[in-house]
TrEMBL record:
This is ComF family protein. Belongs to the ComF/GntX family. InterPro entries: ComF/GntX_DNA_util-trans (IPR051910), PRTase-like (IPR029057), PRTase_dom (IPR000836). Gene3D superfamilies: 3.40.50.2020. The lineage of its organism: Bacteria, Bacillati, Bacillota, Clostridia, Eubacteriales. It comes from the Bacteria.
Length: 226
């Protein structure tokens, strides 16, 4: 199966559905009728708790600025689960539109976008990387390149049942930059769907910085605990 095959196929399917149901659209979450809204209805939208403030993710002398569009609850949690486990790229479009608003309202500047990678095994199993989909959607909005430069070299243990320190240790050494050509001396915006402890995005950002990136900021659709 070629790279992004499932992603392309599902996107095509979404487009076909949109043509069929044009003018008779239902909310992708609660299935109620949509009037002037796109993909989700007003009451599902009201269920999204926007996160306005940026925060820092750090360890040792490295600190990265992190933005999350909303809290991981209500409709946003449903959208992320649908994108991640049900190949719902329409949910991905809704999440990306919130991320776009976060970029605008915080005036985040960047040269290139990249995303948190999956192991080859996980990618094969899912058929797409949800963070890559979000980054590519944002790349289209902002007309910025989306660079594939990180790789996940270690299959991390399930984080459930681990304390904070164990979670960080579990992730350390899992990511590497395999090609720094397009990030060298660039401001990079690292995209992920959800931030929990921050260990994943921290180690990805650190690798980007060590590989020549000028600056790394982080943007996630939602934040769960930090
Ligand atoms: Zn709804």
């Amino acid at each position: 199966m070629g790279h992004g095959f499932v992603e392309n196929l599902s996107f095509l399917w979404d487009c076909i559905l949109e043509l069929i149901y044009c003018g008779d659209e239902k909310c992708i979450l609660c299935k109620s009728d949509l009037y002037n809204d796109r993909y989700i209805c007003k009451s599902c939208k009201n269920n999204i708790k926007i996160c306005k403030d940026s925060f820092k993710i750090g360890k040792g002398c490295h600190q990265f600025k992190c933005y999350s569009s909303s809290y991981y609850s209500g409709s946003m949690m449903e959208l992320i689960i649908k994108l991640k486990y049900k190949s719902s790229f329409r949910s991905g479009n809704v999440i990306a539109s919130y991320m776009k608003d976060t970029i605008h309202s915080n005036d985040i500047s960047f040269d290139v976008l990249t995303y948190v990678p999956m192991t080859k095994k996980s990618f094969k199993k899912r058929g797409y990387n949800q963070s890559e989909y979000l980054a590519k959607t944002l790349g289209k909005y902002f007309r910025k390149p989306v660079v594939s430069c990180l790789t996940k070299i270690k299959d991390t243990k399930d984080q459930i049942g681990l304390n904070e320190k164990e979670r960080w240790n579990n992730i350390e050494g899992s990511f590497k930059v395999f090609d720094n050509h397009f990030i060298n001396d660039k401001s990079v915006l690292l995209v992920d769907d959800v931030i929990t402890t921050g260990a994943t995005v921290f180690y990805c950002s650190l690798e980007l910085l060590k590989s020549g990136a000028k600056k790394v900021d982080i943007l996630t659709g939602a934040k769960s605990r930090v």
